[in-house]
Structures are given as structure tokens and as C-alpha cells.
Amino acid sequence: MSTLFKSLLANVDREAWLRFLLALAGLALAFAAAVFSSAASEAGNVAATAIFASVALGLAGLVGALTVPYLARRVVLARVREAMHYKFTREGVLYIAAVMVILVAALNTGNNLLYIVAGAMLSAILVSGLFSAAMLRGLELDVRVPQNAFAGRPLAVRVRLTNSSVWIPSFSVKVLTPNIKERSTWEWEKTHFVFPRQRMWVRLPDYVLRRKSPAPKPEKILTQPVYFTFVAPRSSVDADVELVFPQRGQYAQDGFSLATRFPFSFLVKSRKVQLERELLVYPAVRKPDELLDILPLISGEFASYVRGRGTELYRIREHTPQDMARFVDWKATAKTGSLKVREFTREDERRLRVVFDNPEPGQVTAEAYENAVSLAASLASHFRAEGTDLSFSGSDYTGGDDLDSFLRYLALIQPGPRTWVLELLTVSPDFNVIVTARKPGSIPQALWDCSYVIYM
């Protein structure tokens, strides 16, 4: 019992109680001032009567100004937060129709038993609505969503439902995404009145009423309902949901809905929960076996570009006057009869740069564009997993050399005005893997010699 009493005290709104006590004290002082005003009036003291009456009125007005608006706001916010929405089910419609038939029969026959049956049936609807509303009002929702995910890959989202009620359990509760349709609005747009239109002799400020369409919103995160059979009082239940997002981009949700048909399924009662969640979905990353048609070619071109003085053998070639004697391969020289040297890769300069050259709108099809974005993300992830020293570049790309920044860039990119990123890459000695929609002749020769180009 003591634990229950402490838990109830912990949930008390201290500010509300403070305002309540201050209001009682102010009203008590106002009442005392009114009593003194009456006594002074009976004694014939006009000045004291006026003073005490003014103090009483002032205290009463002060209490009203400080307490009434605050309590009104609390009531309005509580009603908005705990607003219940009701929707009749098919069973509920049939049930109401049956009640109406029994009521008509009772009115026609005057049979008291029919009145009792109709009253019991109506009371069942009332009890169902009150119980389910109290059950939903005590629920708290938490949806744990990671910061990012990959398109086409399963993502685990944990939905937690907490019943904060002390006595009332919750049965058959669904977590849904509320379907709210945004309506277009009207607004005044500033313009000019011109007369005549060709010569514009008169030009005056004017306003035109135009319809404003609602801004497009990101896709929702949770699209399928999550069902909870039972949540005991003062306990929590978790449900792990596996989601798959087919497309890259930004996903967001500003609210969820708790709904139930318990106990008789006459009504679907729901309550909206304000809970904002955001998720950034990266482009789909292909597996290495899906890139076999280009990975060996890129690796070969890259190895050829970075040949030098490392520890990994690149090739055995003819000796030149610039080669040092310690790199002579004596076995190959003895077999061929000519002086041969070993050539190694330069491991200290194995830098590769993934470049996404964003095309203009309409230059490529939507399918080709998405494939190119996915390919750029796949190559970046593959070479980073291989331990290659990577850097990234792209049209309007301002991130660093970390993979997460480049994937974020690819997740949100859309076709836009041409940024001549390829002309800016010629100053770098890195080997470039370029995903582009340009023609081969439009790529600078200096960049072409140190790049592997993939066309959209």
C-alpha cells in the first residue's frame, strides 16, 4: 500500500498543486477582506469599507487571472493529447441495427422486457467504450529506429508498449500509422495590376488568392500494424518488427496511433501518439558476386596505375637504364638471356577515388539513374571493406573521405543542374572510378588516362 501511495505522489503535478494552494490562499484572503468590508460598512466607516472591498475584488481578480487560464490550457491540452477517435465496425453496425429493431418493437408493444433488453444492449456499448478508452489512455509508446539502413535489406525495429495504469490491463492493441490527408489551403500572393498589359502604363500593387498545395511529405517508416495481445498493468511489452525499404531516401513519421476493438468489437477506438522518428535509407549495396563483370576490370586498371616500388609483384619486364640493380630478376634473366627486372605495386600510394557525376534531369531514365547510384554505393562499400585508401567526389558533394558521408550523399541525391566535377579531378593523382552519363569524348584526356569510367 505504501508503494502504491508513493507512486501516486510521484505522478502528482507539483506546479498544478502549487497554483491550487496559492488560489486557496488568495481566495481566503479575499474572503477575509470582504468580511472586514462588511464590518466596516456596519460601523459606518466608508473609507475602510472601500479599501477592504477593493482588496477583496483585487485578490479575487488576481486569483482568476493566474489560475483559470492555466487550468483551461491544461484541460485543452489533456483533451487534445487523449482525444479518442471512434469508428463503427461491421459488427457494431449490425448490433446497432438489432438494438433499433428491439426498440421499435418495444415502442409498438409496450413490453417492459423488450425495454430491459434494449437498455442492456445499449449499456454494453457504453461500458465497452468507457473501458477501452481508459485502457488506451494509460498506454505509452516507444519506437526504436536506427539512424540509417540500406535499401532492400531487412531492418529490425523495436516497438515497445508500456501500460502505466495501476489497475487496468490492456488487451488486443494495434500500433498503426494514422492516415491523415493533407488538404490544400488558400493564401494571398503578392502581385501587380498592370494596364494595359502590353504597354504597362499603370502598374499598381495587387494581391491574388491562390490555392496552395500541401508540401510532399517523406514516406512513412511503419506501414504495417503491430499487434499486442496483452499488456499487464505497470509493465512493458516489446515487439521486434522486420522492415524492408525498397527505395533509398528520407523516411519520417510524426505520429502513431493506438487502436483496439476490445471488448466487443462494436467500435474501433484509437488514440494518436505524438512521436517523431526519422530514418535515412542508403542506396542498395550489391554483393561482390553481382559485380563480377566490372570488379576485375577496375582492380586490373587500378593495379596498373599504381605499379611502383611496393612489396606486391606487379610484373617482370625488360631492364631500363633508370632501374636499380637490386630489382634485377636473375632467374628470369637466365631463362630469357636478357636483363629482366621486377616491378612492384606502390602500396603507399594505393589511393582510389569513387566519383558520381550527377546528370541533368531527363538525361537518363529513372531506372538507369537508380542503378548508377546503387553501383556507386556498392563500389565504395566494396573497396572500403578491402582496405583500400578511398576518397569520394561528386556533383555538389561536400562531405569528407568517410564512407558514411558519401552514402548519405547518395541516399538523398536527385538529378540536378550540371556541376562540372570531372574538370576538377584532373589535379589529383588518385585513380578515379567514375560513374557518369557523359559521352567518352567529353571527358578530359588527362582524366581519362587515370580513370575507369562506368556509363549510366
Short synopsis of the structure:
The chain is α+β, with helices and mostly antiparallel strands.
List segments where confidence is low: pLDDT < 50 over at least 5 consecutive residues.
Answer: 1-12
C-alpha-based Rg, rounded: 38 Å
* Terminal-residue CA separation: 72 Å
Order of helices and strands: HHHEHHEEEEEEEEEEEEHEHEEHEHEHE
The neighbouring-strand order within the major sheet is 1-12-11-5-8
What is the average of the pLDDT values?
A: 76
Oligomeric state of the chains present here: single chain
CATH architecture of the domain at 288-305 and 350-455: 3-Layer(aba) Sandwich
Number of helices: 10
Strand content: 25-35%
Largest sheet: 5 strands, antiparallel
Instruction: Name the overall outline.
Output: elongated
How many strand units? 19
- Give the structural class: alpha+beta
Please report the first level of CATH classification, the CATH class of the domain at 288-305 and 350-455.
Answer: Alpha Beta
CATH-derived topology of the domain at 288-305 and 350-455: Rossmann fold
Q: Roughly how much helix do the residues carry, as a percent range?
A: 25-40%
